[in-house]
Each structure stands twice: as structure tokens, then as C-alpha cells.
Amino acid sequence: MADLEGLKVAKNYHIDEPFANQNGFYVKGANSLDWGMKKHLSNIFNPKSGNTVMFAFDHGYFMGSTAGLERLDLLLPKLAPYVDVFMGTRGAIRTCVAPEISKGIALRVSSGSSMLQDDLSHEVVAVDIEESIRMNADAMAVQTFIGADGQLSSIENLSKVINAGFRYSIPTLGVVAVGKQMERTDRFFKLATRIVAEMGVQMVKTYDCENFEEIVAACPVPIVVAGGKKLPEREAMFLAYDVMRKGAKGVDMGRNIFQSTHPVEMAMTINKIVHEGFTDEQAWEFFQDMINQ
Ligand code: 5RP
What we know:
- By secondary structure, this protein is of the alpha/beta class.
- Helix content is 39%, strand content 14%.
């Protein structure tokens, strides 16, 4: 292991230079993957735009029934036409998603914490690869706590899932978690996002932060950005527009859709930003038109 003495701070991100190893397949870092992996990735990242709108409703795995997710059976069919991927737990998907709804599936496979604890960083791999195969998952999502007490076990969980994913050609989504004691700085997200990518995931979910372009440039796989806590709709639209502008390949948005006053119209609007390049102003106008119809 390189010693940490005199570590030089990275600074040459060549932000304006596109990713060089991408002459075979449109998803970043997936050139050398096999057909099955690429097939799953094409169920997540739209082949035309290269981007994705993941609707995240996996919050129940540690929050129980949270506001806006009380009735997944009613909500999910309404949002399905406007999102590319359902990101949820095995229990939510098996009970509330009709199999005939052809949607990408990002299956949350790690769990083990609840909001009753302070330290959420100790999870296990709760869903095995056979279950991911049975559910035809297009990605397996693993929470990864860099810098927290559960760092080693979460990287072990991530590695186990990646290893199984390569065996059976199912991509892994590395979910960068931000524990209470972690700093939401670009320094943290640069470290955490790159560590997760170096473990061998096919995509990373992380958060927006300062110098986000540098995080994108330094990450050899696509980044999707979590919406995070509920914002006013206009601000959530700006978040989506801003991270897409800076190189994210999509959003993994939950609360800013399911806690919106108009979840369906919000999903429609986020879809316009991610796939049609709407600015936040255009999005806000579209959203107003939709809700005033
Ligand atoms: C919950 C998650 C969510 O999938 C992720 O944070 C996206 O949801 P939101 O936009 O509500 O943050 O990892 O643990």
C-alpha cells in the first residue's frame, strides 16, 4: 500500500476531455463487459440519451413507511411511465410492482440498519445473487459507508455483491452513504465515489457537491445523483439540471418525487431534464403547465 506520507492532492482532472476508453459501448467504463452486463445496463441507461431516471423507493428498508410511500401499490403504477428504473427493496418490488411493468430494476440488496440507531453503517448483504437472478434485477444496490465505523464491513458487502455480479452478469450500483458524522464536502465525495468505483461497481450513486465535475471526471463509471432531502420543487429541478450539466448520467430520486405535492408531474418534469436537456426554467414552466391542466 502506498504510504500516506507526502500524499499529493489530485488536481489535474482534465474536465473538458471526454472519457477515453469508450469506443465500444455507450455506458462509461462498460466497454469490456460481457453482453449480459451491457443488456442490464441498457435497461437502466436509455440508449438514446445515455441517462437514467431512477425512482428510489427503498427508504422503507430502514425508515419503515415514510411520508409519500405509505401506499406503494397505488403510487408505483402512476410513476412507471415517467421513470426508467424502479429502485426498491425485494419486499416492495415483489408485492407492489406488477411483473408485466417493463421497467429497469435496481434491487437494494444490503440492509440491516434502522432509523432507531445512530450509526447506520453496519449492514449485511440481505438479498443473494440467486434472488437477484430470479427477479431479473438490472442492478444490485449496496450501501457503502466510507469513513464510518462500518466501512470495512460495507466494503466487504460491496465486494461480495460485485464478485457475484460478475459471475452472473448483473451490474452493481455502489450507493455512497453519508453517515451523520460525515462531511458533505467534495473532498469526502471524491474519496468515497472513487473508492466505490475502484471496488468494481458499474455505476455509483452519490450526492451533488462543490466541484462535482471533478468527481465525475475522476469516476470511471457513470454517476447518478440522489435527490436527498425534500426541497421545494423548483430547487429540486435545479439540482437535477445542475448535476446533469456537470456530467451526471441521471438521478436516483426519491423524496423529491414521492413527497412532492404532485409526484407524477414531478417525475414527468425530471424526465424532461434528464432525457431532453430541459433547463430548470424550462422544467419549472413545464411543471406549472402540467399541474394547471
Ligand atoms: C435511501 C437511498 C435512496 O435510494 C437515495 O438516497 C435516493 O433517495 P432520495 O432522493 O430520497 O435521497 O439510498 O437509503
